[in-house]
């Protein structure tokens, strides 16, 4: 039995129980219009739901009873005992059908013709004036027995399976369970410190019962997230009408359950994000048609469980976030400088939309444009211990992922110590634990760590006084909890100066929190922060441990804001850099410039302007591949060329330090190049004044940096080694979507990769009929490439139908054929083809496509 049918049975049982009482009351007081209205409304609801669920037998009986009640409501009949009895008989029949439906999952067989005929006969009686209420005979309490007034034992048992309980009762029960959990934790703490075998077994039993009771009470507070979505279809419908767009809303995982309190807190953020998708995300119909997209935009909501948390995805298939506009707005609002933005990735720039007062809307409308939206969403999500992440692809859409805890009352937390004080970090934010060693940033550090008897290879390094950790393939920014909170207690002495690092997730970035000691995970009861401490955003609450100690609960998002990591969006310091220390320009004529110093080969450090470096990476040899003899690596879904500064990769090294340079000014996906060096030395801030010119290719010249003569590399030289066309004309902003129609699967599989490599998005179908079906469904393409010889509908007939009507009538259509005789070309011109290309000439096809899409001269094949 599905959930919808189960809910119907439960609600109908409740309604029938109320109807029994109400009908008896109506029989005693036929003039009670409120009771009559209640009865009619409940029977009408039952009938309507039966029709919706496809229960014809139930619907027929309920409809007959509703007809009688409708005549009574309209004062065409009086609720005499006879009429009430017949209606109650109808309700008894409904109960019997429901019993069979509950037992078998389907309506039982049966003949209701006689009952329906009786009810219809009552409803068709001649209308007569109803007597005034005080003149209607009153049925005595002990007079005529009413059929069905008393529920049977089976019906009472079914109704007792579900009850409605007030929210305040559940809240009080949750409070008692929370206190029980605290008491359980205190007893467990005593058991660890004082050995008393007599209490061991009962205490374990008490712990298990407490856990089961806690789980059961939490379940009573759980509600499907669909309850928070129920107003969204109407919202999207109204927005589509107001904005003049066609919008389709898809909701997946509506049955996913979460705590009622969390559900209430996410309703408004969800509503705002859906409004943003409709207004900002989805393009107008004309723009979607021009981009080769379906005219109807799509907003998708998806909720699911993952690792004890709830993940909610709000996605649209619109144009994606306008990175250029966001960049310009960030500069105009003073959120970042040109140099700082140049050092950021596209994802980091996009996260500026989470900053207060940020909006790219051209004008304020009733829907948006005031800049008070996404920052409120972010704040509300973080207030309940959640995180928010963005992912946007130009021309394809944006996805916002929200990660929130199942419940706020009792959570799992990691207990740590710093400066002699203990703290709790919610488990939802903890990614992993790392034990590391502080070491000088020199070439021997890695060898020293590798030789560590404990097998610890992680080393805390410093770049311009910023502690970082080389964690696998990236540099992790670190913050000392003792220093951040100005704790006076001395840190514990650790052998070999080892440190414990709690790696936490902060939006799209990660942050390492250095602590003195790590204890264990514990179920804690979250208490609100006292008003006197609420201005300290690094705390999200407090709790009581098993030994009675009161400790603060840390908020990793607040710690990130306090240290500048992840403010508004991802922070470039995640790569070990501080954008606030970057200079205002690359040349630094009017002020100092941040320079990255590195070594490559034997000799003095080299320098490159920090603003040019997108990221620092530590790549293992296993991730390096070869393409046409050049080393490459897979980087963010693309192949990134690697250029060894020394000319070749060191055969004896297993890991390589890479400076990543990226450029997205071409409008399409960003291109990246990795410059392989030996090691990072430091980040310094100094005036960049060239003293000598470049002595060889690849060098801009020599400057005095940090008191020493330092060669400054010419990054343009190395960019052109990776991409010869790096500084040529910009690439197309969005790849055109081309429909390929060919009945040969082999040819489709051969042609699609070649067109994709040339920068087109390819949709391939096996017949002209399928192509026309896509047109009728509203799909749009920039151009069509069609074979001539196809079964059923050939290419000539296909192009004639395309030109005859529909949204594709003006699209370029290129014919593919093994024969290009003049007669064939003339026939193609008459049918409506834009160009005619020999089937196996790939270069000619690509050239024709570019010409037809306005990227070259007019097509030649069908010239007059």
Mind explaining what this structure looks like?
The chain is of the alpha/beta class. Strands 10-11-12-13-15-14 form a six-stranded mixed beta barrel. Strands 27-19-20-30-29-28 form a six-stranded mixed beta sheet, with no helix packed on it. Strand 19 (593-599) and strand 20 (606-609) form a beta hairpin. The longest helix has 27 residues, at 167-193. The protein starts with a helix and ends in a 12-residue tail after the last helix.
Sequence stretches where pLDDT stays below 50 over 5 or more residues: 127-143, 145-160, 439-456, 490-496, 567-590, 729-733, 856-864
Q: State the helical fraction.
A: 25-40%
Distance between the termini: 69 Å
Instruction: Calculate the mean pLDDT score and round it.
Output: 75
Determine the oligomeric state from the structure: single chain
Shape: flat
Tell me the number of helical segments per DSSP (H or I, 4 or more residues long).
25
Largest sheet: 6 strands, mixed, barrel
The assigned structural class equals: alpha/beta
Record field, number of beta strands: 35
**Largest sheet, spatial ordering of strands:** 10-11-12-13-15-14
Q: Can you describe this structure in just a few lines?
A:
The protein has 864 residues and is α/β, with parallel strands linked by helices. It has a 6-stranded mixed beta barrel. A 6-stranded mixed β-sheet has the order 27-19-20-30-29-28, with no helix packed on it. The chain has a 6-stranded mixed β-sheet with strand order 21-25-26-24-23-22, covered by helices on one side. Helix 3 runs parallel beside helix 5 (113-123) and helix 7 packs antiparallel against helix 8.
């Amino acid at each position: 039995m599905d959930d919808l049918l189960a809910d119907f049975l439960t609600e109908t049982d409740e309604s029938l129980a109320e109807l029994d009482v109400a009908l008896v009351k109506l029989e005693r007081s036929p003039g009670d219009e409120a009771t009559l209205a209640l009865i009619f409304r409940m029977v009408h609801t039952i009938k309507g739901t039966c029709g919706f669920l496809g229960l014809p037998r139930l619907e027929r009986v309920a409809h007959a009873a509703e007809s009688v009640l409708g005549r009574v409501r309209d004062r065409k009949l009086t609720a005499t005992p006879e009429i009430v009895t017949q209606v109650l008989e109808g309700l008894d029949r409904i109960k019997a059908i429901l019993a069979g439906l509950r037992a078998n999952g389907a309506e039982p067989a049966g003949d209701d013709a006689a009952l329906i005929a009786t009810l219809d006969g009552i409803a068709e009686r001649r209308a007569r004036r109803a007597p005034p209420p005080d003149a209607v005979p009153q049925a005595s309490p002990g007079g005529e027995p009413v059929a069905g007034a008393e529920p049977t034992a089976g019906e009472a048992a079914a109704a007792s399976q579900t009850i409605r309980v007030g929210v305040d009762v559940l809240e009080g029960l949750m409070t008692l369970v929370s206190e029980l959990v605290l008491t359980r934790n205190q007893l467990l703490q005593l058991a660890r410190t004082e050995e008393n075998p007599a209490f061991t077994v009962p205490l374990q039993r008490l712990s298990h019962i407490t856990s089961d009771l806690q789980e059961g009470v939490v379940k009573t507070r759980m509600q499907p997230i669909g309850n928070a979505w129920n107003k969204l279809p109407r919202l999207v419908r109204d927005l589509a009408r107001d904005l003049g767009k066609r919008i389709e809303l898809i909701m997946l995982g509506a049955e996913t359950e979460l705590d009622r309190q969390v559900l209430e807190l996410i309703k408004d953020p969800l509503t705002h994000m859906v409004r943003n998708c409709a207004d900002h995300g989805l393009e107008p119909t004309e723009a979607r048609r021009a981009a080769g997209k379906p005219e109807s935009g799509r907003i998708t909501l998806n909720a699911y469980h993952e690792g004890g948390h709830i993940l909610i995805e709000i996605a649209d298939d619109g144009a994606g976030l306008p990175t250029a506009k966001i960049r310009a707005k960030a500069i105009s609002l003073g959120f970042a400088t040109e140099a700082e933005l140049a050092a950021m990735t596209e994802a980091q720039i996009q996260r500026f939309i989470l900053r207060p007062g940020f909006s790219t809307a051209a004008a304020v409308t009733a829907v948006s444009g005031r800049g008070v939206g996404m920052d409120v969403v972010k704040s509300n999500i973080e207030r309940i211990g959640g995180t928010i992440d963005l992912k946007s692809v130009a021309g394809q859409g944006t996805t916002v992922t929200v990660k929130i805890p199942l419940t706020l009352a009792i959570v799992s937390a990691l207990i740590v110590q710093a400066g002699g004080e203990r703290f709790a970090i919610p488990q939802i934010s903890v990614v992993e634990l790392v034990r590391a060693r502080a070491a000088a940033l020199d070439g021997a550090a890695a060898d020293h760590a590798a030789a560590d008897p404990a097998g610890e290879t992680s080393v805390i390094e410093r770049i311009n006084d910023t502690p970082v950790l080389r964690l696998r393939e990236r540099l992790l920014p670190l913050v000392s909890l003792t220093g951040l909170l100005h704790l006076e207690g001395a840190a514990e002495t650790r052998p070999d100066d080892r440190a414990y690092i709690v790696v936490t997730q902060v939006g799209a970035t990660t942050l390492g929190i250095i602590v003195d000691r790590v204890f264990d995970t514990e179920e804690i009861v979250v208490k609100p922060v006292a008003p006197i401490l609420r201005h300290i955003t690094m705390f999200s609450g407090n709790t009581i441990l098993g030994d009675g100690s009161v400790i603060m609960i840390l908020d990793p998002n607040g710690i990130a804001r306090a240290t500048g990591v992840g403010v508004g969006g991802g922070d470039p310091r995640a790569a070990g850099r501080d954008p606030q220390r970057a200079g205002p320009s690359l040349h630094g004529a009017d002020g100092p410039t941040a320079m990255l110093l590195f070594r490559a080969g034997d000799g003095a450090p080299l320098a490159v302007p920090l603003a040019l470096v997108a990221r620092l990476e530590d790549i293992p040899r296993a991730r390096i591949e070869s393409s046409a003899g050049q080393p490459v690596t897979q980087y963010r879904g693309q192949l990134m060329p690697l250029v060894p500064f020394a000319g070749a990769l060191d055969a004896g090294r297993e890991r390589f330090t890479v400076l990543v340079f990226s450029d997205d000014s071409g409008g399409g996906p960003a291109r990246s190049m990795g410059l392989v060096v030996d090691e990072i030395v430091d980040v310094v801030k100094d005036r960049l004044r060239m003293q000598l010119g470049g002595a060889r290719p690849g060098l801009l010249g020599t400057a005095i940096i940090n008191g020493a003569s330092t060669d400054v590399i010419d990054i343009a030289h190395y960019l052109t080694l990776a991409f010869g066309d790096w500084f040529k004309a910009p690439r197309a902003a969005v790849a055109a979507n081309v429909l390929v129609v060919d009945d040969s699967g082999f040819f489709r599989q051969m042609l699609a990769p070649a067109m994709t490599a040339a920068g087109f998005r390819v949709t391939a179908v096996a017949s002209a009929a399928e192509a026309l079906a896509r047109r009728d469904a509203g799909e749009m393409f920039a151009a069509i490439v069609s074979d001539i010889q196809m079964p059923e509908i050939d290419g000539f007939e296909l192009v004639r139908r395309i030109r005859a009507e529909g949204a594709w009538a003006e699209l370029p259509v290129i014919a593919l054929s093994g024969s290009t005789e003049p007669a064939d070309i003339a026939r193609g011109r008459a049918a409506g083809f834009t160009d005619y290309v020999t089937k196996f000439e790939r270069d000619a096809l690509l050239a024709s496509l570019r010409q037809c899409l306005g990227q070259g001269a007019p097509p030649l094949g069908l010239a007059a």
